[in-house]
Structure formats: structure tokens, C-alpha cells
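Appendix C reproduces, verbatim, an entry submitted by the partner laboratory led by Prof. M.T., so that reviewers can inspect both the input and the predicted structure.
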Amino acid sequence: MSFVIAVDGPAASGKGTVAQRLAEIYGLPYLDTGLLYRAVGVSLIEDGLSLDDPEAATAAAQLMSLAQLETMDL
């Protein structure tokens, strides 16, 4: 059985810190969605695509690798 833990709340409230710690405690993978959102936006801009194009954003997110997320300067 697998599950996902989502932590929601206002900006700068410590969601990322709590989510990272929960992932560590439970031995789960951790995805920094804020980093993913920023990386997709940068990718769209660099490719000259619209930030308002959900299909382009979806494609950019699906093509993104973990290595890219770790090395992007966002």
C-alpha cells in the first residue's frame, strides 16, 4: 500500500520543512512542489512558451528529471 502526504498552508509557514521531516521519519520520497513549479516556469520561458499554456507546462514537468531540479538555480 502506498500513500501521499500533502502539507498545505500559507507561504513561508514552514510547510517544506515539515514535509521534509515527515518524509525522513516515514522513509518516503519528498518532492518540493514549489521548486517544481519554478523549474517548469523557467523551462517554459527558456523555450519561448506561454506560462498560460497548461499542456506545455504539463509536458515540461513530465520531461523534467530529478537531476535537473537539483542543479537549477531558482
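The mean pLDDT is 89. Additional entries are available on request from the coordinating office.
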